[in-house]
């Protein structure tokens, strides 16, 4: 592959949209999604970017399109998210590439996954779809979500969101392409036997030019190579 250009890779074995994806140990995994006939899929596959080839892996065991996905502790987490009218609890599946097996997601994890996720400090954080909600983090020991200390997402950042993370910072791009940068800090909790952390967040807003006022984000990535791209105060580009 050449730098500064797009390279067309081999097609997936099964055409799909709205699927889950994640990179684990340099391999790209995709799962579920909608077929060309708009039926939900349970198939999954993996691509080796060096060879450019796809091959099938174990099926999910549930036909579902992905609302969000994350890679945590070497596993691919896939959730379909809450759907109106909220009568049925959302489904979630977890894939372990070491065993090529899927298992059902823990109840607390899938029911509390109510927004776009990022992984920071080897913990899963969610920016809720409910505006003005505080950032929350998942505790695998108790299978529950905890609200971070600190202010909620700044009011300038409105849905739809595009969320990403780099090091200890979370980047939330909202309508009009305003960006909220959340700096995550952690402290160990005293008086506990296990290594349990308390997390804090402080937000900084980078307002976009007025000419971007009619734009909405679809995705976001953090890059260190774009010399001419707009830069945040810390020197990173979006």
Automatic annotation (TrEMBL):
InterPro entries xrefs: Kelch_1 (IPR006652)
Pfam family, one: Kelch_1
Keywords, comma-separated and alphabetical: Kelch repeat, Repeat
Superkingdom of origin: Eukaryota
Protein name per UniProt: F-box/kelch-repeat protein
Species for this entry: Carya illinoinensis
